[in-house]
Design brief:
The complex is a heterodimer of chains A (294) and B (610).
Chain A: H1 3-35, H2 42-59, H3 64-87, H4 95-117, E1 133-135, E2 138-140, H5 142-164, H6 166-176, H7 178-183, H8 188-210, H9 220-235, H10 240-261, H11 266-280
Antiparallel strand pairs in A: 1-2
Helix pairs in contact in A: 1-5, 1-6, 1-8, 1-9, 1-10, 2-3, 2-4, 2-8, 2-9, 3-8, 5-6, 5-8, 6-8, 9-10, 9-11, 10-11
Chain B: H1 10-27, H2 31-57, H3 64-81, H4 86-109, H5 115-133, H6 135-138, E1 151-152, E2 155-156, H7 160-182, H8 185-195, H9 197-202, H10 207-233, H11 243-256, H12 261-278, H13 285-299, H14 304-318, H15 320-330, H16 332-348, E3 359-370, E4 373-384, E5 388-392, H17 399-406, E6 414-419, E7 422-423, H18 429-435, E8 437-439, H19 452-459, H20 468-473, H21 478-496, H22 511-523, E9 529-533, H23 541-556, E10 560-564, H24 568-574, E11 577-582, E12 585-590, H25 592-597, H26 599-606
Parallel strand pairs in B: 5-10, 5-11, 8-9, 9-10
Antiparallel strand pairs in B: 1-2, 3-4, 3-6, 6-7, 11-12
The chains are: A mainly alpha (294), B alpha/beta (610).
Chain lengths: 294, 610
């Protein structure tokens, strides 16, 4: 393999995982903008997406598209439940306390997944075969194309949602200034609920589409999620465009680092980038998101 | 955010703790319990340090498992691979960890916001991956065995019981040092900065450097515990030091109660033993652990330890006045002296004729604009020495802006200011404080969760010197300075009439008392000029008159006063000189009678055609 095709190979695989990071980072951003907190349960939304897909598709034998839709719906509902049962009743609005509630919820959910799905590794079939296509001399799995396609579609839909729909605009208004939004008749609590539901959906999609090319376990989302978090910081925490760019960039850098430098320390790459960004340009590539603009 | 009250109760609690530590192994012979107790002890060391960071500096670290792990691995590798003495290895680990903490802390803690939590999260993940991957040194994922026990000469800490006394001895010292720090000048400064960063800055607290120092200290605690862990278990593996353990450590602080050392001791005992208890539930234990955590955080966000203690505080507060009286006796002599002086002043000194002496503050052609809006336009005036000067004007006239320029909060103005003989260009609030200028705030900026006394003590920050090492180890000179600060604070509290409330938390004061407390905090710096920003706004007639009397009393001490106020009753009654601003320009100055007759002033206030 020539070095150019090798490079192309690394970049394509980087963009593939980068898309996943981008989706997860978007989930972090949406909740951050609505509430000012980091939602660590995001990590488990990713796992749950994959796990539900496994159950619906393989255990129940439902068709692919139906399984996909039901899995996303389930996690969306779980996202809403996390808000409803853990965040909303909280007696304190302190950011620290809310963040640790999401951590508690995360431990709770992961414990539940372990009981329900066991500790074993599982595998999901690719969406449409595993014979690689050759693009620019690099071998590309059809699943990678699915990942790219679905990520693009989701980002497009989100953009439409936030810029054109009533609810989308209300969520944005809430993130700029919750009190003013409430005075304009926006039900702020409901917007926060929607944000959690939406983040659940995003996490689920990320989990569902990545699992065929990795393996599935009850804690698959943890490492992916933390890297999604790093991607969000890289792009500028809370900034949605930044989240997408940060995700893709992180994926590519990680893949190049693993390919060209050392695969042993592949996982260090993402977090080394995270720490470096915080030291050098803590506001991230595109600056902080909406709610931090004070 | 609550914190330990006054020091008188500490020895009792500490004696209780010491007794419990000594008695526990006598009461149980079960080695399993001793083992759990040892792990609890190690966690406590880390958590007590972490609590200083979270509860007092308001910053979260998700990297303390890594510092703990660094202590363990550096101790393990140095003693086994390089045959270094365990004690030297332990010290090396502390140094390396402190250095790393400094490297992480300096760039992230100078920023506002929760950057430290993100950086330490990344740091923990990196360190953990290195522990797993660098197997030639660390033994990789399967761990690092064969670490020797600690020993002194021939005598080795080779049993659970011996290690128990060592670990809990360290716990005891760690708690004593933490309490020492909390009840000291830097400790008060850290809590103050948590309550109001603006006010803390105005009284000379260097907030950034304190945050870094306390982060480094907490990392040292963690490293020390890590080294002990390695020598106790003689085997270490990366899994112990992963990000989840960092999360657990912070959880112990939050569940116990941020900022309460006794609370977090409870949190640590509870959460460390919980998995052992939940073992019984086997595969459901994570679910139950998560559920308990969520429920506690939802219903007792201040922490279980503090929830219990707050009941105690309420009981304690009712004992407050008695304590306060005791305090007064201690500083009685100086208090009566100041009362005497006050009496003299009230009776003897006639209002100064303006312009008699040199002005204490000269303002020359000061302009300031906020993005095109002229807040101040070419204002010049003199503030006479030893007199009460009032700055008045309709809303939006630029009065508070002027106070902020004078006290160094706004520094981008044009024009010049002279405080005494010194030009003050470029000086920040705490440098102004050092030069003898102090202020109060329009929207009361007290340190809510500190006692009234402590609020005043923070006021003396700029003029005093005790730092971290003095405070931690109670070095010579520490107590003398603390006594001096406390004595002076009581004296000033008596002067403003708040001595009986000294040991109450500041949030419990009435609004009028809060205003007086702000004045006390300004006076304790021994200023030559105090700036009072609307000292009677929002008060009823009686309270206003009391404050007016207090302001005259301040003048009688030879302190110049510049006040911004809307209440014309008070202004006309006590001022020696009045300066009137409208739309950022000075429209009049003079004695009260002149101002009352001034056409321009009347039209500015009554909305006539100027």
């Amino acid at each position: 393999m020539s070095s150019e095709t090798q490079l192309a190979q690394f970049i394509i695989s980087g963009i593939t995982t980068g898309s996943i990071y981008a989706l997860i980072a978007l989930g972090f951003c949406i909740i951050h903008n609505a509430t000012g907190i980091v939602n660590f349960a995001q990590v488990d939304f990713v796992s749950l997406g994959g796990l539900m897909m496994y159950t619906l598709l393989l255990s129940l034998g439902l068709p692919l598209i139906l399984s996909f839709a039901l899995a996303v719906l389930t996690v969306t509902a779980v996202g809403a439940l996390v808000e409803r049962l853990a965040i909303r009743p909280a007696r304190s609005r302190a950011v620290i306390v809310l963040i640790f509630i999401t951590i508690g919820a995360s431990i709770f959910m992961r414990g539940g997944f372990k009981v329900l799905w066991g500790k074993n590794q599982m595998a999901l079939p690719h969406f449409s075969g595993e014979s690689p296509l050759v693009i620019l001399g690099a071998a590309v799995l059809p699943q990678s194309l699915w990942i790219l396609f679905i990520t693009l579609a989701v980002v497009g839909l989100l953009h439409f949602f936030f810029s054109r729909t009533r609810i989308g605009k209300a969520i944005r208004a809430t993130s700029y200034n919750p009190r003013a939004a409430a005075l304009m008749g926006v039900n702020v609590n409901r917007m926060i609920l929607f944000s959690f539901a939406l983040s659940g959906a995003l996490g689920a999609v990320a989990g569902i589409i990545i699992v065929p090319i990795t393996t599935l376990s009850y804690e698959i989302g943890v490492m992916l999620g933390l890297k999604g978090f790093a991607a969000a910081v890289l792009g500028g925490y809370g900034n949605s465009i930044g989240a997408v760019i940060g995700g893709l960039l992180l994926g590519v850098l990680e893949s190049l680092g693993a390919g060209l430098i050392s695969s042993t320390y592949k996982d260090v790459m993402a977090f080394a980038i995270l720490v470096t960004v915080l030291f050098v340009k803590p506001s991230g590539l595109l600056g902080y998101g909406d709610s931090e603009r004070r | 955010m609550a914190q330990e009250l006054h020091s008188k109760r500490a020895p009792v609690s500490l004696i209780g703790l010491a007794a419990a530590i000594v008695l526990f192994p006598v009461l149980t012979q079960n080695p399993y319990y001793l083992n759990v107790a040892n792990i609890i002890g190690l966690n406590t060391i880390v958590v007590v340090g972490l609590n200083l960071l979270i509860g007092y500096a308001g910053q979260i670290s998700l990297g303390h498992a890594a510092f703990y792990g660094l202590g363990a691995y550096i101790s393990g590798v140095l003693t086994v691979t390089y045959n270094v003495s365990p004690w030297i290895a332990l010290l090396s680990a502390v140094c390396v960890t402190a250095l790393l903490a400094m490297l992480i802390g300096i760039p992230t803690l100078k920023l506002h916001g929760h950057y430290l939590v993100m950086a330490t999260l990344g740091f923990n993940l990196i360190i953990n991956i290195i522990m797993v991957q660098w197997d030639s040194v660390t033994g990789g994922p399967s761990g690092f065995p064969g670490i020797p026990n600690l020993s002194v000469g021939q005598w080795s800490f080779d049993s659970d019981r011996k290690m128990y006394y060592l670990i809990w001895g360290v716990v005891f010292v760690a708690i004593v040092l933490a309490l020492n720090l909390v009840r000291s000048r830097p400790g008060r400064a850290l809590r103050a900065l948590h309550g109001s960063e603006l006010a803390a800055g105005c009284f000379g607290v260097d907030t950034k450097s304190y945050k870094v120092k306390i982060f480094v200290l907490s990392a040292i605690y963690a490293s020390l515990a890590g080294s002990l862990y390695a020598h106790y278990l003689t085997f270490i593996s990366p899994k112990t030091f992963d990000i989840f353990f960092s999360v657990e450590l912070v959880t112990m602080v939050i569940v116990g109660g941020m900022g309460s050392i006794w609370g977090v001791l409870f949190g640590t005992i509870f959460l460390t033993s919980l998995p052992n208890v939940l073992h019984f539930f086997d595969e459901y234990k994570d679910i139950i652990y998560g559920l308990i955590l969520v429920l506690i955080l939802i219903f007792m966000p201040q922490g279980v330890g503090v929830a219990i203690r707050e009941k105690w505080w309420k009981r304690g507060a009712s004992e407050g006045p008695a304590d306060a009286a005791r305090g007064l006796v201690a500083s009685g002599r100086s208090e009566s002296a100041s009362v005497e002086r006050a009496k003299d002043g009230a009776a003897g000194v006639a209002p100064l004729a303006v312009g008699d002496s040199k002005p204490i503050l000269r303002i020359r052609n000061v302009s300031l604009n906020f993005g095109g809006l002229m807040a101040l336009a070419d204002v010049s005036c003199d503030i006479p020495d030893g007199a009460i000067t009032a700055l008045i004007g309709p809303n939006g006239a630029g009065k508070t802006t002027m106070i902020n320029v004078i006290s160094g909060i706004h520094r981008r103005h044009r024009g010049r200011l002279f405080f005494g003989e010194t030009e003050t260009r470029g000086l920040n609030p705490h440098q102004m404080a050092k030069m003898g200028m102090a202020r109060t705030f329009q929207n009361v900026e007290l340190f809510d969760h500190m006692t009234v006394l402590e609020n005043v003590m923070v006021g003396m920050h700029a003029g005093t010197r005790n730092e971290f090492l003095h405070s931690l180890f109670r070095l010579p000179g520490f107590t003398r300075e603390e006594r001096l600060i406390e004595g002076r604070a009581w004296e000033v509290l008596a002067f403003v009439g708040l001595a009986s409330k000294g040991l109450f938390p500041a949030f419990g004061l009435s609004f009028g008392e809060q205003k007086r407390l702000e004045i006390a905090r300004a006076l304790v710096t021994a200023p030559r000029l105090v700036l009072l920003d609307e000292p009677v706004a929002g008060l009823n007639m009686t309270e206003s008159l009391e404050i007016a009397g207090l302001i005259k009393k301040i003048r009688s001490q030879g302190i110049s006063v510049l006040l911004v106020e809307h209440d014309m009753n008070v202004v006309m009654k006590i001022s020696d000189k009045i300066i009137v601003l409208n739309f950022g320009t000075k429209i009049a100055e003079g004695q009260p009678e002149e101002i009352q007759r001034n056409e321009q002033v009347l039209s500015a206030y009554l909305g006539g055609v100027a």
